């Protein structure tokens, strides 16, 4: 008997959303089976989509090629995984093959059958070396805290939750402990058949929160064995990624801890998904298929739950945050999500008091206003630590010549190159173009070229100078350290820096938003934000949401240890230097009133029919010239006439991006809006073939690439 499997292979980005290729096979292949197939002159990895025993009508049977072989010993990907991929491909308007193959570990494509068999054997050996996964060891290994009342209530509510759960827990309220307990429960639940249950825990950036990984390992490895917790993120080597993926796919790994890419991990026994810091923008991919891992997580939990319903089981999803996304908040308002609140901090500690410094009344040019400086000095003298947030790395954003007006522009981008003093370079943060700092002005030869503005490098230097007269309790001068993308580039350097802070070696930590994210600091009692103003008046309608979240998260790093605060006898503080102290955002921040902030923002969004009250997409074009990029968009808009729901869709004029040129490519975009998500979806699907055709319009000559971004985060 002969079969005609349709197979998904990695085809170019836009070759049709539902695109599969037909092959010939002597054997029946289960959908989800990984196979090797010929494609042109190459042999590539594919996933069997379907395996009918009749050839499709449009197939020339004589020309059809044979499947080369299945990847032996590897169980097929299950039906839910295939449906997740199909949904992601349709919703985000990308090729099925592109999404599916990008969701698999790259090394899987390269290994031949024998190599793969060796890996599998290694895995099996590892698995037998650990405690039997089906019978958890005694509870003795579970060294959890005694739950706070709020934690206990949240856990009880999780038990019966029928909808996605939004765990709205203040910073330091102990959300992690809730995740750990829920994980334990999901893993211990007996599942029918021989299924080992699994849990997926997603974090925005795994490298930033080594603590979380450590907590999961500590808690679960003694119970389920050394291989029970695996990570999945882009910082891993291809071999590590494959090992983690295989462990998850074969059930050896009980817990997968990963970044957004982990949403596509094959986990046959999935019973719980946790999305920590669910508001974080890094859950949205900015390249390839521009998916939101948070939104896909909600979809995936539903898929799994639907499949389990017959067995009286389900897959729970917890979205956790102290500052939820307005989308999730709105869903909870509507009752689509179940909101569980944990407003109190562990130990009953207070959230920091807000102190606004009105920069209109400070000495001209003050980096740190005198009252803030005094407060920092006082903290340091008492043995407490301070965190200073500045969202700009490098020494200065621009280097300029005061004689002729030359500025350190990037020759390849419409942006300035940033001055990095430590290695004396001018670096473009968009394209990476780097040069030594010139000794004199390249235009007029003037020797007096100077930095304009301030970045974290300079701030670190200045704070050290400003605090020079201050003494720590041990009589030593204060130690200032910096943490940003530059200082944490080397593997392990972030851990070292965090350790220095935890041990009390460092008194002041200067850094970008990276220092505001999720860290459980014990002795920080003062947090300061220096340049919040730029975001107050940004044109992006999501800017207030992001700023509020950032400031609240930053504030959340202070005063986390109630016992320590007690011995110090003071309260923790969040200082903000601003020229606009009357701005209403600060009034809400003062009371830590996220619900009030969210309600007000949602009202504004509703009156403007903005998400989550309407749906958006962006059509983006990159080209050699701005004219070509915009021409492509305009032609695409013209050609949309007559498409389904065209009348309900608003197509805005094509505009250049705020940073118009990057790496010598001109960038433009067009906003697409519709009140209804499903109408927008149908329109976009119908628009796809049109967009392909527009590529070859003469006016769009020089077009480099185009992409659709559904539910864009920045417009
Ligand atoms: N029931 C408990 N009893 C004592 N300590 C606890 C308890 N639950 C959590 N903790 C501790 O409280 C601290 C804060 O918890 P955690 O880091 O989970 O907070 P969080 O809610 O995730 O905060 P954030 O949103 O700021 O990251 C941690 O040091 C944790 O070990
Ligand atoms: Zn550049």
TrEMBL record:
Residues 156-342 form the Helicase ATP-binding domain. GO terms for molecular function: 3'-5' DNA helicase activity; ATP binding; DNA binding; hydrolase activity; zinc ion binding. It catalyses: ATP + H2O = ADP + phosphate + H(+); Couples ATP hydrolysis with the unwinding of duplex DNA by translocating in the 3'-5' direction. The keyword Metal-binding applies. Residues 126-150 are annotated as: Disordered. Zn(2+) 1 binds at residues 401, 404, 441, 444. Gene3D superfamilies: P-loop containing nucleotide triphosphate hydrolases, PriA, 3(prime) DNA-binding domain. SMART domains: DEXDc, HELICc. Keywords: ATP-binding, DNA replication, DNA-binding, Helicase, Hydrolase, Isomerase, Metal-binding, Nucleotide-binding, Primosome, Zinc. GO terms for biological process: DNA recombination; DNA replication initiation; DNA replication, synthesis of primer; double-strand break repair. Initiates the restart of stalled replication forks, which reloads the replicative helicase on sites other than the origin of replication. Recognizes and binds to abandoned replication forks and remodels them to uncover a helicase loading site. Promotes assembly of the primosome at these replication forks. Belongs to the helicase family. PriA subfamily. Component of the replication restart primosome. This is Replication restart protein PriA.
